[in-house]
Design a protein that fits this description.
The complex is a heterodimer of chains A (about 70) and B (about 260).
Chain A lengths: L14 H8 L6 E2 L6 H22 L16
Helix pairs in contact in A: 1-2
Chain B lengths: L3 E10 L3 H5 L11 E5 L2 E9 H4 L1 H7 L3 H19 L5 E2 L5 E2 L2 H10 L1 H11 L2 E10 L1 H4 L14 H34 L4 E4 L13 E11 L3 H14 L3 E9 L9 E2 L1
Classes of the chains: A mainly alpha (about 70), B alpha+beta (about 260).
Chain lengths: ~70, ~260
């Protein structure tokens, strides 16, 4: 499934920045959708925690500039 | 037997829309297509409700690997469409049960969407994060020798001093972050401060003092970046990082009730 990514995308994107936009941004449309805004918001909150803990795991040693998701890319 | 749903990526103008989505594939690897209503078009894909229906979606959104993959695919479609004109990104995981409801949405909110497309036209979103490293903030005054004192009182005094100077340093960093945000707003059409994405990370050595995101005219992106670089040079103790350009996720408008 990883090779279905469609468009040419040459940007390096940290997951935490991406989720900050696709899940916390974008126009929100209520009504007639299969998952309510409240549902998505709840999911977003738990994901943020999840992403935070993952990025902390991936950031490696303190003071060393890691390049894991959620860490500052260079 | 499984039913299909309609995953919505974005809303764009109908004119030339076919070319803009031609060849794109979406979150399920499905060909991206359009649902058109008058001047507007929704960029959508057909997805299996076994994976993207209410219960499945709720479950899958708890799976970070699934979310990461779908988030990148969702973003890739929107980013591709944004290259050729104005776009309103739709929040990830917006799934309708059929085309008719999407068409109704376009009809009902036409004026809002038109206004938003005009506002976003020729503009991109840039993120700027500012980090404070406590070690940098406290280089001068925190590492003072306690003269070899090892008593409990000496320890507590030193600890209290450290905490006070930490607090002071962070306050200074916050003031500087405010200044940076104010300056960047002058080079942007719009902007906002988002909550730091990793607040819970007490174990990290760096702290996000600004998680700003800015709507910038496309032809001013270079100037905006130069401004960020200049601000970075002007501050020794904070580090700045730019992300983007993004499609204008954070400026797509207020929640829309159909």
């Amino acid at each position: 499934m990883t090779d279905v990514l469609p468009a040419q995308d040459d940007r390096r994107i940290a997951l935490v920045d991406l989720l900050d936009r696709v899940l916390a941004g974008g126009v929100v449309i209520s009504g007639e959708v299969v998952l309510s805004i409240a549902d998505v918001d709840l999911v977003v909150i738990s994901l943020r925690t999840l992403v935070s803990s993952v990025s902390s795991l991936m950031s490696g040693e303190p003071g060393v500039g890691g390049d894991g998701d959620g860490r500052r890319p260079h | 037997m499984s039913a299909d749903g309609v995953w919505v990526y974005a809303i764009i103008r109908g004119a030339g829309a076919e070319d803009r989505v031609s060849g794109l594939r979406g979150v399920a690897g499905e060909p991206v297509h359009l649902i058109v209503s008058d001047e507007l078009a929704a960029v959508v894909g057909v997805v299996d409700l076994d994976e993207y229906g209410q219960d499945a979606l709720r479950r899958n959104l708890e799976d970070l690997d699934w979310v990461a993959q779908k988030a990148r695919a969702h973003d890739a479609v929107i980013t591709a469409v944004a290259r050729s004109g104005s776009v309103i990104p739709v929040r990830m995981a917006t799934v309708y049960l059929d085309d008719g409801h999407v068409r109704t949405l376009l009809e009902n909110r036409r004026d809002d969407f038109e206004a938003t497309l005009s506002r976003l036209c020729g503009r991109a979103e840039l993120g700027v994060k500012v980090y404070a490293d406590p070690k940098q903030l406290l280089t001068a005054d925190s590492e003072q020798d306690d003269g070899g004192m090892r008593t409990g009182t000496a320890y507590l005094m030193r600890r209290r001093q450290q905490l006070a100077s930490h607090e002071e340093a962070y306050r200074a960093a916050a003031v500087e972050a405010d200044r940076i945000h104010t300056t960047l707003m002058r080079y942007a059409v719009d902007g906002r401060r988002k909550p730091p994405p990793d607040r819970s990370l007490s174990g990290r050595d760096e702290m996000t003092v600004l998680n700003g995101t800015y709507l910038v005219d496309s032809d001013a992106v270079g100037l905006f970046r130069e401004t960020v670089a200049a601000l970075g040079m002007s501050t020794g103790r904070l580090s700045l990082e730019t992300t983007g350009p993004w499609p204008p996720y954070s400026f797509a408008g207020e929640p829309v009730s159909e």
